[in-house]
From TrEMBL:
Upper lineage: Bacteria, Pseudomonadati, Pseudomonadota, Gammaproteobacteria, Aeromonadales
Name of protein: Penicillin-binding protein activator LpoB
Species of origin: Oceanisphaera profunda
Amino acid sequence: MKKTWLLISSLALTACSNYQVPESPVFPANSRWAIMPMINSSNTPMAAEKAEQILGTHLYARGINATFYPASDVSDLASILDNNAKRKNAQTWLASQNVDYVISGSVEEWHYKSGLDGEPAVGITLEVQSAGDNVTQWRASGARSGWGRESVTSAGQKVIDELLDGLNVE
């Protein structure tokens, strides 16, 4: 009975997440990194910006002090909501930077599910490219549904942390 309960518990816990995290090539520890704008494909405003901040913190915890793209200096609502304008400004900024690798990605899901419990649901894809030639060096994707009292930010941190476990920096 004890083994059956343990098996059911482990299946229930793993059924809440899905990750595709290949091992990356080895990135030198002294590499210079830049975080570029993530694409927000979720229905939650500012989800990509939240994920970028969490990504920066988790990279820093792994010894990568990545530079963030500068905030756009826009004042009209159309420009604020236009992801293409932000990405173009960030690409212009990146051209003047001396970095080795660029990390970006997308947020597919960042919300609370509807229903009695309202569990958080997060889906994120990360991608590392060489700054000089834009060749993709590594890509990983993960999704997680948390528990009723968990915050979306906490679920997002867990997804990003799990994805970055595949990043080899030496």
